[in-house]
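Justification of computing resources. Each target in the renewal requires a structure prediction run like the one illustrated here; the chain below, 311 residues long, is used simply to show the kind of job we budget for.
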Amino acid sequence: MPIDFSPCRCHYCGSTALGEFSAQERMFGKGDTFSYQECEECASIQINPIPVNLGDYYTGDEYYSFIPLVKSGSFSNLLKAIRLRGFLNLKIDGLAPKVYGYWLKKVFTNFDVSVADVGCGNGQLLYELNAGGFKDLIGFDPFLDKSIEVAEGLCLLKSELSESDQKFDLIMYHHAFEHLRDPEKELQVCFDKLNSKGKALIRIPVTDSEVWQKEREYWVQLDAPRHLTIPSVKGISGLSEKIGFKVDAVEFDSTEFQFWGTELYKRGQKLRSNGWDEFSQTEMEKWKKKALHFNREGKGDQICLYLSKPE
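Resulting structure tokens:
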């Protein structure tokens, strides 16, 4: 039978004032329908019940997190190391990695820190950090086929963070936290697995977004049934502080994906990695500018949440 959340309460603020709505699986076009709840207090949402066959919706080659890891040669890795050290140690912003430089700069202390990436998928991000000079990196993902050592100082484990005996200086969730069953339990595990003065980075979609408010079940980041919970900024910040974290910053980092992905769903299409080809360059530029505007206004559809563990 499906797994019910019991008692029926919001996983972020604990309220029992929950509205109901339904959402379809749209990424692969399966069309299966799922029940969700929306908190009237903090505006977070959660699936209820969780389908027992959840793993069927993370199927192999179809799911983007498990495309093959792309490795680079030794000379390319040397250049990556020079570039990353120039960016982080010498503060040369022009050398910032385009995809992850903006958040890495905010959590960086030194290259010797121990780093965990929860929901690491194929480990591509950790591989790039390893090539850049980080040498104590572990990825956790129960959906991996098996645990592997990718390179010296980089392992990917087919397990949960809670199963590790190690403590870390930095724990990251890059669009993984919304896939977890119990946010409060996971935040407690994260807190316990951090060293004193350690940092946590959670990148996650949020219901503060104007796209969610306007488009509802067509919002591309609703992603039923894989996204089990999606918080509001209020919801996840409050829960983090309840656990004992200090909220250092909240940064909206949404992109034009919120618009073109949602538009694909409204047209009845599946999500494709090159789905933007459906739209003109003019439309894409307009959406890029709109995403930046939404981020400045606190209405984007995803955030970087920066947390720290007190001494």
